[in-house]
Amino acid sequence: MEIKQMLIRDIHGRECLKQWRAYYTDLVSENRYRWVKERHCPVYFEGEYVFIYDADRKVVWESRRKIGDMELMGDLVEDVKGIYMGYAPERMPWFQIGMEAARRFRMYKQDEKREEEERLEREMRRKVEAELTKTPSFVHTSHRGQEWLDMGLEIEDGKPLWLSLWHEKEICILFADSNIGKSIYALQIAFEISKSEKVLYFDYEMSYKDFQRRYTGSNGERYPIPDKFIRCEPNRKIFLNPNVEELIINDMEKLIEEEGAKVVVIDNLTFISKNSQSSTAVSVLMYQLKLLQEKYGLSILLLAHTPKRNMRKPITQNDLAGSKKLFNFVDSGFAIGQSMTDVNLQYVKQLKTRSGRIEYGAENVILMERTFSDNRLHFETIGYDDERKHLKESKEEEQKRMLKEVLKLEKLGMSQREMAKILKTSKSNIQRIQKRQSPSSTLRI
Fold first, then answer.
1. Which pTM does this prediction carry?
2. What is the pLDDT, as a whole number, of residue 251?
3. Could you report the per-residue pLDDT of 234-266, keeping only the tens digit for each?
4. Burial per residue of 252-263, b for 16 or more beta-carbon CB atoms within 10 angstroms, e otherwise
5. Quick one: three-class SS letters along the chain?
6. 441 falls in which pLDDT band (50, 70, 90)?
7. pLDDT of residue 445 exceeding 50
């Protein structure tokens, strides 16, 4: 329905929206304005938008609707009116009609948004695939084995950027559970690298106030962040844009060109991918990052989450949130785990490398303690250990340990309630443990 069909002129010659309450049920139900009592309400047009007036002849700016949306609502209102055939206009339940029309409108817009997102994803995929499938001037290059070695020796090996975990010109992934300290460790790495070369840190997690608190002491003294460290914070409104990934990648490229940076940290994957659980969406994103990496010779560190994992089992690449396909795209990867022996201890485990051997695997994880000193929040390495020592006990091991503790406390004459309090468990659990001491129990210490 065209907007002019929805309008009528009142005795004063003003354009009015017919049966206006059907189009503004949300505002009417809030009772925050003094509305006109007539069935038709004066309207105000500005560009492609339409507004209504209140009873005091003031424009209700909150009533802004696109003319195209109003025309769609007009069609929906007409459809819903058909349910009330035979009603006189003045007896029509316009509020109920408006509520149903609004419900249908939301469903229509959701479908429209989903279709637009799918269209943009298809378009993005086509662009990436077109770039990747350009016919090269040759298909194969052939040389003798020794010649390949000679050619390889002419290219300098990528130097380590951070221990043996991340090398130059690699896409590396760091993942961990929430609140383990991914960002703390990633910033620590970025600060160290930026002592010698420029680092672009794209921070989608923290606000600049959070950043300031982490690197300012209680006396107001600041941690001396190297000048070559450049933090980039997004305009949060872009995340409402259905084309957000393309906006982000394009702006990243612009900043990389402007700054001439070769090292990039992205914190984190969740914010730059609308659907990090989708294999297709992750593939498209990684292709885009790979194109950037090859075009500018970048070293990229990408942060990601793990879903809730079994703390009794070692960390593997399967703990990476979203598609396991993601791990196939990266050159190297490592994770941060929480030690079950001490809440203040975390460990780093190396999971993938294409630049040599795994140095910090399951038998030699880097043990770290989170601390605030020298006006900064950071990790201090306190040694190396076997990952198995920092996993949660198996149920059988936990039962054996608890039984030992209960037996010790029994000898001290403690009651079940006292034991439960000391061992931080329930009284009924203490009873179950004591029952296992019976000759019929198979559990022994």
1. 0.62
2. 94
3. 988 888 777 788 889 999 999 999 999 999 999
4. beeebeeeebbb
5. CCHHHHEEECCCCCEEECCHHHCCHHHHHHCCCCCCCCCCEEEEEECCEEEEECCCCCEEEEEEEEHHHHHHHHHHHHHHHHHHCCCCHHHCCHHHHHHHHHHHHHHHHHHHHHHHHHHHHHHHHHHHHHHHCCCCCCCCCCCCHHHHHHHHHCCCCCCEEECCCEECCCEEEEEECCCCCHHHHHHHHHHHHCCCCCEEEEECCCCHHHHHHHCECCCCCECCCCCCEEEECCCHHHHHCCCHHHHHHHHHHHHHHHHCCCEEEEECHHHHCCCCCCHHHHHHHHHHHHHHHHHHCCEEEEEEECCCCCCCCCCCHHHCCCCCHHHHHCCEEEEEEECCCCCCEEEEEEEECCCCCCCCCCCCEEEEEEEEECCEEEEEEEEEECHHHHCCCCHHHHHHHHHHHHHHHHHCCCCHHHHHHHHCCCHHHHHHHHHCCCCCCCCCC
6. very low
7. no
pLDDT (tens digit per residue) in 29-79? 877 888 998 889 999 999 899 999 999 999 999 899 999 999 999 999 988
pLDDT value for 152: 82
Q: Rounded distance, CA 424 to CA 419, Å?
A: 8
Q: Tell me 217's DSSP state.
A: -
Q: What amino acid occupies position 172? A: C
Q: Under the phi-then-psi rule, with left for phi > 0, alpha for psi from -120 to 50, and beta for the rest, what region is 86? A: left
Residue pLDDT, tens place only, 64-73: 999 999 999 9
